[in-house]
Amino acid sequence: MEEIVTQLEMTAVGQLNPAPFVDGLTLEATGPGPHIRDLHVRIGTPYRWPSATRSDEDWARWLDEPGRHYRLIEYRGEVAGAADFEPQPGNDVEITTFGLLPEFVGKALGGYALTLVVAEAWTPPGTRRVWLHTSTLDHPNALPNYLRRGFRSFSRPL
User: Are 27 and 153 in contact (CB under 8 A)?
Assistant: First the structure.
C-alpha cells in the first residue's frame, strides 16, 4: 500500500473540539529517556513509524532535542501511550508523537487523550498554530479522531 501523509493544523485554541471526559485518563510530563524509545517502538511498530526502527545515534539526537516536551498518557495508573510536542519557529507547535499502546487501542481513550495533548500543546505563550501529520499507515481511527478534535488539512501530497 502506498503511504499518503496528511498534514493537519489548528490555528486557534478555540478550534479544539474536546472529546468526552474519560475518568482515570491523565497526561503526565516526563523527561527524555529509554522509556520514550520503548514506547515509540511498542506504539509505532504496527504502523511502521520511522521511530520504531531508529538507530541508536538517531535516538540520541531525538532525545537531546532541547525544546521537545514529552508526555505519558496514563489510564488508571498505567502508561497507556505517549505524546510529545515541540515548539517551532513562528510560534508553531508540532505534535511530533501521539499514540496508544496496542493493549489500550479500542478502549475509547484516543479522543480524550488527544484532547489533553492538544490543549497542552497550546500552552506555550504566543502559540499561533498547532499542527501534526498522520499517514494512511496509522490506525484507521487516527485521521477521523484528528478531524473530530478540530484539525483541518493544510497539505496533502499527491
Answer: no
Give the model's pLDDT for residue 52.
Answer: 87
From CA 125, how far away is CA 91, in angstroms rounded? Answer: 8
Q: Is 18 helix (H, G, I), strand (E, B) or coil?
A: coil
Residues 132 and 98: beta-carbon distance below 8 Å: yes
Q: E strands of 47-148, at which residues?
A: 69-75, 78-88, 92-100, 129-135
The SS3 call for residue 131 is: strand
**pLDDT one-digit tens code per residue, 10-39:** 999 999 999 999 999 999 999 999 999 999
Helices (DSSP H) in the chain: which residue ranges? 34-44, 56-64, 110-121, 142-149
